[in-house]
User: What shape does this take?
Amino acid sequence: MRYNYQGTGVAMITPFHANGEIDFNALEKLVHFLAENGIDYLVVLGTTGESATLNHDEKQRIFSFVAGANNGRLPLVAGIGGNDTRGVIDDIKSYDLDGYNSVLSVAPYYNKPSQEGLFQHYRAISEASSLPVMMYNVPGRTGMNVTAETTLRIAEECKNIFATKEASGNFEQIMEIIKYKPAGFEVISGDDAITLPMMACGANGVISVVANAYPRIFSDMVRQCLAGDYAAARKLHYQLTDIIPTLFAEGSPAGVKAYMQELGLCDSHTRLPVVGVSLPLLKKIKSFAEVLKKQYVF
Assistant: This one.
């Protein structure tokens, strides 16, 4: 049975040691931290998880490890996407996704397919996947927008695709999708900074980057939105509006990993071509982290 993805999901980072190997101790700590601080579901190996720099074996180890550490507490979403439709289908079929509830699949990048190509890509994945699929539109990374018209066509015709993680930032497009989507099709924010206004327009929630570091404050904000208490939600929203731009100023997930190191959650190591934040940005991150640090128990 498909899970209803209301609330706050986290696009989990992948912690690394200084030598570039996966830090499974920190990964386990992160799973517990998120589960204990208001998060509704976990997204494993999305963009924020640096999936592009992990090989097939490493990805399988992470999928299995997170499922074990989670132990059924939260729904799990597996990030499996790419710009080769056959390759994505092969990956979905080849990974052991025991314990996972659905797949998040980013729109094809680099190829710049037509809207018809995007539709056919998602239709093929919908038909091949044994798990429900959430599409992911992030034109800032893929170089190609999945239009409202194409998204609605996918929602109507690809019955195994139940949601879109929408990160176009285009509110006309977002509102058109929400207004005309079929019943049961979910629209989920893929952009922390505009989650509150997206939810005011009718989005179901968010898959968040900042919630890796500040899960309680962000998930509380989302819950206030779901309850219709936007006055309370705004107070929490504005506590994070200075932080969110610093997450992406020099490449993600370098920014959020810097916050997480300040909070003692993991080291800030990344894999090339992503590098750590510069000293000026780190100084700013340290000052913002200090303001919020005492509000959380780790």
Observations:
- The chain has one domain: 7-230.
